[in-house]
Amino acid sequence: MAMMLASSRKIPCFAQRIGRFAQRNRCGLKHAQTMEKPCVLAPIGQEAIYPCFAPCIEKHFTIVSYETFAQKREDFADKIQAVFVWGGALKVDRGLLQSLPKLKAVVNGGVGVDHLDISLINSFGVKVSNTPHVVDNATADIGMGLMLASARKIIQADNFSRHYESADMPESSMGNDVSGATLGIIGMGRIGYKVARRAYGFDMKILYHNRSRRKEEEERAVGAVYCEKMEELLQKSDFVMVVVNLSPQTHKLIGAKELAMMKSSSTLINISRGLVVDQDALVDALQRKVIKAAALDVTYPEPLPRGHPLLSFPNVIVLPHIGTHTVETSQIMVERMVTNALAAVNGEQLPNEVKI
Ligand SMILES: O=CC(=O)O
């Protein structure tokens, strides 16, 4: 009977229609619920860096993408309570701050906040947070990856395997051992120390230069020797890795003078910020073979424009700033950003507020 009725009364058709109706209602409900969530501005959608992490933000917030905001600024201006930023993709300038009267926080993914004018942002009563600790392992790993790739000519060798009809293995496939070589770390904060722990496992000799000396037991644990003067580190190291924050004191810290102090057989690795190294001086040093090679996760600008002289050297590796880009790190980073944004929206202390 059920079958007959179903057939004669076209019940499946109605069921489908009811289903669609219910679905529409559910969507409507979802929409209503999400509209009640506080709005945040985040790079999701076309311009997204981490599209797969949107659900983590959407659990608590309604996301307005940068793109949508750019098109319909006035629709969202008095709704947005937090801005999610990864690097300098969105300029948090006076104009933006003036147009967001309800804004409570700028939550930054990553540790470096050199792209944010914190005093300006604070002057609008808006707080800034970052995600310290989270990025340390991934960033230290990219430093080690760059050092090994450069020492063992991994990129050139891969290129040769793919194009050996047209590409020569330049000069020689012979690289250099990192084991037994000296690594000089400039900036022995959390990330620098993680690099030292890894390099110690590779039997490297470790020198470091930092504003303040590490505790003796910390030095001993990784066999690191403190160089009060950076010159000493530059003169003695086979690999120099730069891991400092960008500040007025570290802006172009490595310039022509510093490069000239390095061994002609040495390699410069930068995992901090592009502007810590004077790029013109680096190009000149490479052209004149003042140093052997360079491996850079960071440059200015990022990415480097095609045709930039640094991209013409086979002994230079350039990455587009991917130090923190792992699924695991990014997931924790987004969770921390959400925690900070929630605290700001609820008028609580931000767990990772950056103060000046
Ligand atoms: O560049 C990465 C960071 O600042 O964490």
From TrEMBL:
Q: What is this protein called?
A: Glyoxylate reductase/hydroxypyruvate reductase
Database matches in PANTHER family: 2-HYDROXYACID DEHYDROGENASE-RELATED, GLYOXYLATE REDUCTASE 1
Q: Which Pfam families match?
A: 2-Hacid_dh (PF00389), 2-Hacid_dh_C (PF02826)
Q: Which InterPro entries match?
A: D-isomer_2-hydroxyacid_DH, D-isomer_2_OHA_DH_cat_dom, D-isomer_DH_CS1, D-isomer_DH_NAD-bd, NAD(P)-bd_dom_sf
Keyword Phosphoprotein recorded? no
Q: Give any Gene Ontology cellular component.
A: cytosol
Q: Where is the D-isomer specific 2-hydroxyacid dehydrogenase catalytic domain?
A: 57-355
User: Which lineage ranks, top first, belong to the organism behind this chain?
Assistant: Eukaryota, Metazoa, Chordata, Craniata, Vertebrata
What's this protein's family per the entry?
Answer: Belongs to the D-isomer specific 2-hydroxyacid dehydrogenase family.
Q: Where are the transmembrane segments?
A: none
Q: Where is the D-isomer specific 2-hydroxyacid dehydrogenase NAD-binding domain?
A: 144-323
| Entry keyword set | Oxidoreductase
Signal peptide span: none
